Amino acid sequence: MPSASIRKGDRVRMISGKDLGAEGRVLAVLPKRGKVIVEGVNSVTRHEKVRPNRRGGQEGGIQHKEAAVDVSNVALICPNDGATRVAHRVDDSGARVRVCVKCGTEL
Ligand SMILES: [Zn+2]
Questions:
Q1: Whole-model pTM?
Q2: Which of 83, 92, 88 is nearest to 10 (CA)?
Q3: Three-class DSSP category at 2
Q4: Cα–ligand 1 centroid distance for 53 (angstroms)
Q5: Whole-angstrom Cα distance, residue 86 to residue 83?
Q6: How far is the CA of 99 from the centre of ligand 1 (A)?
Q7: Running DSSP on this structure, what letter comes out for residue 81?
Q8: pLDDT band at 59 (very low <50, low <70, confident <90, very high)
Q9: 100 has a pLDDT exceeding 80
């Protein structure tokens, strides 16, 4: 499952879609929908009604919020190769680790 390869906090690059080439940190993974939310990617602008808050300031106005993107549109970034696909390997202690398919670096 590709969605299992991407985790919250990963640095990823967009490999297709309108944000092609954009990079960011994964803020959330939505496995049931096969989507992830990436910081600064697929940002949507919402206009909200401006309203006063309790601190005497105001909230609302124009809000930027990242919309979910398909997990198939993102790739993990390898320090050697850039955007890459991920393979899994079992390390010496028996733990399953993610490695770059190109150079074998643990990701
Ligand atoms: Zn690599």
A1: 0.78
A2: 83
A3: helix
A4: 48
A5: 10
A6: 8
A7: T
A8: confident
A9: yes
Residues 6+ apart with CB under 8 A from 25: 9, 10, 11, 12, 38, 39
Residue with tokens 């993974």: 29
- What is the Å distance from ligand 1's center to 35 Cα? 24
Token pair, residue 88, equals 């899994």
Convert the pLDDT of each residue in 1-51 to its tens digit: 444 689 999 999 999 988 999 999 999 999 999 999 999 999 888 888 898
Q: Ligand 1 center to residue 103 CA distance, Å? A: 4
CATH architecture of the domain covering 2-53+60-81? Roll (2.30)
| In the chain, where the domains are located | 2-53+60-81
94 CA distance to ligand 1 middle (Å): 22
Which backbone phi and psi does 17 adopt, to 5 degrees?
90, -175
Q: What is the mean pLDDT of the chain?
A: 91
Distance 80 CA to ligand 1 centre (A): 5
The residues facing 59 across adjacent strands are: 51
